[in-house]
Each structure stands twice: as C-alpha cells, then as structure tokens.
Amino acid sequence: MADDYASETPQVRAARLMGWTSRRGRIAYVMTGAGAEPVDARSGAGLDYGHYIERQLLPIAASIADAMGLDARGWLEAGPQFELDFA
Q: Residue 80: CB partners within 8 Å, gap ≥ 6?
C-alpha cells in the first residue's frame, strides 16, 4: 500500500496520484518530465526520453556493444526519432 512507504519510488508516486493510499495492486506508469505518472491519469507532460535511454536502452545496448568491443553511447545520442502516444 502506498501509505506504507516512506520514500516515494516511481510506482508509489503513481499510486498516490491515483489516490491509492490503502489499495494493493499493480499500477501502470510512465516517466515524464513531471516525474512518474499513472498511464490512466497523465498530466500531459511529455515522456522523459532521457530516462528511458539511460535506464533501459543504454544498458541493453552497452551489453551488446561490449561483446563486440564497441562503445554504445554513440548509438543513442541522436535522441528520439518519433513520438509515442500512450493516451
């Protein structure tokens, strides 16, 4: 339950924004410029592409690049090539 957590992890923040203070369950959220937001109650803030690149894509690309003896940082420097809509 969201009230049980002293720190505000992304999941807890999204749950609190949905009013889930004493409810258990899974919550779908995305990282935006305004922080973690529940998919069902977005503020309209754009997705935080930097977060997704650094935390999700780069670790995968780095493991592939390391096996090839390359550096993956250059692979993802161009930034987003398209806009995703989770509305």
A: 49
As a whole number of angstroms, the distance between CA 39 and CA 49 comes to 16
Domain residue extents for the chain: 2-41, 48-80
CA 5, distance to chain mean position in Å, is 19
pTM for this entry: 0.70
What are the tokens at 7? Answer: 């720190």
pLDDT per position as a tens digit, 66-82: 999 988 877 777 655 55
End-to-end CA distance of the chain: 26
What integer best gives the mean pLDDT of the chain? 84
